[in-house]
Amino acid sequence: xxxxxxxxxxxxxxxxxxxxxxxxxxxxxxxxxxxxLDEVAILPTVDDDxxxxxxxxxxxRAYIQQxxxxxxxxxxxxxxxxxxxVRTRDARLGRRLVTSNLRLVVxxxxxxxxxxxxxxxxxxxxxxxxxxAVEKFDPERGVKLSTYSSWWIRAYILKYLLNSWRLVxxxxxxxxRKLFFNLHKQQELLRERGIVPTPQLLAEALDVSERxxxxxxxxxxASDLSLSTPxxxxxxxxxxxxxxMSDGQGIPDEVVxxxxxxxxxxxxLHAYAARLKGRDLVIMRERLLSDxxxxxxxxxxxxxxxRERARQLEKRLMIQLRxxxxxxxxxxxxxALGFE
Length: 340
Fold this sequence. Notes:
Blueprint: H1 2-14, H2 24-28, H3 59-67, H4 75-88, H5 91-99, H6 102-110, H7 119-136, H8 145-164, H9 174-192, H10 199-206, H11 210-221, H12 252-273, H13 278-288, H14 296-303, H15 307-329, H16 331-336
Helix pairs in contact: 1-8, 4-5, 6-7, 6-8, 7-8, 9-11, 10-11, 12-15, 14-15
């Protein structure tokens, strides 16, 4: 159960990287005690004729050879080092915790190598997650550092994959991120059970709206497309995809008309409110026209009446207001405003 608590608390903690008291450079800047990092060999400059006889340099293999030089910690050593690090925040102790788990990062990164070809990119992101885990690790909770840090490592790798999967981000909200990582898996599960994975079933299984499922399916099925792409390759009229896109503002004439109507209605409402007194004025200004309207109970408590009586007063006021606006603006406008 201790691990589940860490998992629940992880999302809130992982959002901010500014809480780290010891920077990654402080932890990884120097070599471990009684061990020295071998410098990566620099290949000599050769002519083109000699390239065919050279073995291709593999950065992943070279990195693995380097991290194997860092000793692993036994459970007792890990607990002792972690306890002292929590108490002193000594960068050397933090470095020992990080470097003893670098091989774990490589192992987890390999699980996502089919999604992203550059394994070292995944390792780099996983190392940042490992450093965060060391900063947040509490050895008194009875959880191994490798178990706890695996959540952070995976989270940073998944975040990197989400941000770099497309030039245009496909997951910017929590629901979209959930769909990005689980939509395909849920579709396969339904197909294995002989069920057609409709947006409605997927939305129920993933606890999101049907609209969000349909939108994510379109995003993942489509590829990035430049807005400067010509509409037709066989015509040179200069029109691009951007020319066909709406700005969402509507037709200028309609926008102006809507603004004028809104201003006119606002003027009439305030003119009507100026004619009111007492409870009607409070209901008009603090409930009907307020951005944060009072509740009927609050109005009843102010004037010593029941909530039902306050509702009756509001209903009577709405009827009178409708009659006033009909006389001033016409019945069609009042109906368009939503008055029953």
